[in-house]
User: What shape does this take?
Amino acid sequence: MFPSCIPRLRPSAVLVLLALTGLSSCADGGNWKTLKPQANAARELVSLDGIWNFALPTSIDLEEDKAWTKNIPPSLQIPVPASYNDIFADQNIRDTSKRRNILRFDAVTHEARVFINDRDVAGHIGGYTPFEVDVTDIVAPGEQFRLTVAVNNILTSQTIPPGNVEVDETGKRRQLYNHDFFNYAGIARSVSFYSVGEVYVDDITVTTEVKDQGKGATINFSATTNKDPKSSRPRVTLFDEEGNEVASASTLQGSLELSSVHLWQPGVAYLYRLRVELLSAKGKDTLLDSYEVSVGVRSVEVRGNEFLINGSPVYLTGFGKHEDSPVRGKGYDPAYMIHDFQLMKWIGANSFRTSHYPYAEEVMDYADRHGIVVIDEVPAVGLNIGLSAGTSTDEPTLTFSEKTINNQTREVHAQTIRELIHRDKNHASVVLWSLTNEPASNEEGARAYFEPLVELARELDPTRPMTFANVMYATPEADRIMDLFDVMCLNRYYGWYVNTGDLASAEIGLEQELNEWQDKYGKPIIMSEYGADTLAGTHTVIAVPWSEEYQTQLLQMSHRVFDRIESVVGEHVWNFAGFQTASKSIYRVDGNKKGVFTRDRKPKAAAHALRTRWLEEGVRKGQGNVTAAA
Assistant: This one.
């Protein structure tokens, strides 16, 4: 039943989704500085997930089509959340009170415009972070209205991720892009209404300091409200996992001291709850608003070539992943999410990278709760014009130029950094920010492009180290930006794209290069990608590429090298599971097959070999906690 204070969507109301095939300007008004909605004594929450009517535009000019001015018939319908591309068997679709009432979208890929009836009320650019719009003065409680969302899936040189549209001699438009995963689009995550009072908490930042060898801790907090702080009285309370109050304060900014503390650690998660309440300023304890965040007390530090959590070196085991599953595409799916975490536990993984975009907030919450370490990555993939599907091309165009990746692109990139750090800053599981994947960091212009972005990220969050995933062609001699970062993440495919089928030569080449990185920088190295495409069920007596035996032996070769390099502090196999890619290259047959699990999560032989290394053999014994999450 809908609370009366929230604009009620009557059964006859129509929710519609419009998939765009062309670019359009995006209306202002979408607020990205949002807190994830909560339902409690002061806040109400209604989900708008369900079946939405769907239509393709009649024109690439959104203003000419004006689909939001009419009801879209239910001849085509789509589930929300979900990517729309794989739902239909259609090639054209595959390629698109006194209280405040707020409409929130967890993610719309890649650009959204929101219409209520005939009114353009909000817009947002960026496909993986949330935005919202205050609709209090637009619709009245109990009023029936039409909600339309126009979704733009076009990528250009000034989007993140980038791409370009090619028009052939027949006038057919074709989307091109350099990243090696399918350009899924749609309302990929939940849509909801929530309500707050006239005065409410609009942001909370929490950081923790571990002291006395883990026997004590300081929890720093800073909360802001939508109005003058004098319009309410704050009450801040910290609870342990049993619900006991362990500390409190009466200010919006301050610190809480714990003489005894349960630390958040890989595989051994412990979460406190910090509750911020706003009470009436007139002396009565009338509750105006309440919001809670989970707090994992832990420290993160880079010291020399070590990566430390709570002062102890850790060795990361796990994967690069994708939010990808059959039919749903990139749509958030709690069943797949929990199953994936269970498979990571089974195999002995203690970490993953959100390659190559921010994952759903529910994923981050689950990682917090279960002690999984996360490298959190912005959607800046494909900033490398000379790279396609993991291989170099003959394309001579420079990546960084006025006509390609330029200052405008960098401003969009900067906004994705702001939105990611704002959304995920309080997650204990997040220990590294990754600012880009496989950029052309060996090209002229790379340093001028990335140095301001690193400075911005450090300003936004001085508590976490920074990294990026370096591509094979940006060698220690050629790379121009590695010194800007704290941890070296290397994507290397010795035995696959290099020394294909020759694991003996691959082993020599991989060890030589890792020693060069180690000698030049002396920083921690995380092998953020390594692996081989493998067709499940293909077995050979002599290991040859595409066989399960070859994938297993390539991983084992890589591990021998890692174990000989002191600075290697983590290994993330590419990939956790097979995933869909664009059908533009002979290198991909119905997607990328590098997963140690198939796209529908069946294990290959390599999965059992990794389980043996990560659990039974206990890789890097004595170097921190390397067990899977409980």
